[in-house]
Write a structure and sequence with these properties.
The protein is mainly α and 453 residues long. It has a domain of 249 residues. Helices cover 46% and strands 6% of the residues. The strands form four sheets. Strands 1-2 form a two-stranded antiparallel ribbon. It has a two-stranded antiparallel ribbon with strand order 3-6. A two-stranded antiparallel sheet has the order 4-5. Helix 4 packs across helix 9. The longest helix has 30 residues. It is globular, with a radius of gyration of 40 Å.
Length: 453
Amino acid sequence: MQKHTMQTLAAALLLALASGTAVAQSTANKPASTAKPATTQAAKPQASASSFSREQLDQMLASVALYPDPLLAQVLMASTYPGDVTDAVAWSKAHPDAKGEDAVRQVANQPWDPSVQSLVAFPQLLAVLGQDPAWVQKMGDAFLAQPDAVMDSVQRLRRQADAAGNLKSNEQQKVTHQASTTVPSAPQTIIIEPAQPDVVYVPSYNPSVVYGAWAYPSYPPYYYPPPPYYYPGGALLSFGIGMAVGGALWGDFNWGHGDIDIDVNRYNNFNSNRQIDRSNKTWNHNAANRDGVPYRDNASREKYGRQLDGAAGREGYRGRDDARGGQRDAARQSLESRGFEAPATSNREARERAGSSERQMGQRQAGQGGQRQAGQGRAPGSEGGLGQNRQGQAGGGQNAFSGSRNPSQSRADANRGHRSMQSSQRPASARPQGRPVSRPAGGPRGGGGGRRR
């Protein structure tokens, strides 16, 4: 009886173990209802390393997002030609009284892109853009590579300013909210227009304040305040003096489509020397006006960095070929290996190098001037310094630079030496003979100096 009981218990135990194993296998094979497929994370799109992030875009665009639409469109177009913007900034500084439509007409013959020429109407704006050329170039790179993301960033920033109560219509601007016609649930588009079509006010504001609490502490907004005399009063959102631009602004945003529309009639009427086809109503970047400034990302380099149509033929006409190009590259590398600086690859780079060289030259001259002053203060007989006054030298210790402190004496010495050289080069018959010298008769003198007896 006891043996039969033991066999029964063993059988029941084996059955229970078998059932548990089956249940465990079934549970393991059944996917959990809350678990996400392993491919979900892998399928999630990730931003390219060459793309600007949302935080970076808001950071760089915060200083201009509240500009009127036509002016902001002009700024973004112009920023794709950073070298031209640098030239326009320098021109504006050299012509402080030039502004408005008249200033734009003054630069009609400048080799800048027309979008850049339009900016000279606003010297206060160029004073802002000139503070950080790298920022201007980044805006242009972002607009070329990510136009939709740039325009989304502008709208995102405008909604923040509107929510903070700092974006309203007034005498300078007209602010409207436009609902999406394709996606009813999409946020409204905020449009900023000049209150008067031909008079544009450039707003000035502190991005750290006007947008309320900033969402990205690690990416604080860029802020480049303009010179204070353009905006007296220091209000939270200042407008200064309006600029009569006439037809100088001819671009506007095509919100929702990621591009800029061109008012062709307005453009052609103003830019009489640079007409465009009337069917070309969408702005396109002109790589020829890039002035050799490299593009940031591969897509832009492939799209805009190719040689212009017919460039290969022009190179061949000039006698340039791939072999000679390789020789130039080898020569450039040889110079660099020996410590020589490679030639500039663009006009902008050449200008930057020239400015750097001038600054270094001024620093060296200032340092040499300090050394000369220090040398003049040393005591006579002290060692070192160009201005030292050594004892035992003829003329009271003068050195090669002493004549620079007495220019009249230096000129007299030079004239005297010149006359002496001319006299030595004349024939003997033409030289003055001088007065005859009579010597008293007498015997020769001895070496002792006494008379012979």
